[in-house]
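Page 37, continued from 36.
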């Protein structure tokens, strides 16, 4: 199985690779099912949320905002 994260980022301080996956259709049950499978695949290959995988989510009532993205970048990469 080959999967591609939405973004691959080289950490500016450590030089290690980080990955960012955005799940944006959480109102769709099939999408959520596939999201779980994708997260399992990432984890089984050493790409782990909170360690080297940044994960963001949104649904129709809770869109991802610029402020949320900025907060994630500051927390994980600066």
């Amino acid at each position: 199985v080959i999967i591609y994260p939405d973004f691959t980022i080289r950490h500016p301080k450590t030089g290690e690779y980080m990955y960012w996956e955005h799940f944006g259709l959480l109102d769709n049950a099939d999408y959520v099912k596939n999201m779980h499978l994708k997260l399992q695949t990432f984890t089984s290959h050493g790409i782990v949320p909170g360690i080297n995988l940044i994960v963001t989510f949104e649904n129709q009532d809770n869109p991802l905002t610029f402020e949320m993205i900025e907060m994630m970048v500051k927390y994980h990469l600066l």
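The CA atoms of residues 21 and 45 lie 15 Å apart. Flag for discussion at group meeting. The chain has two helices and three strands.
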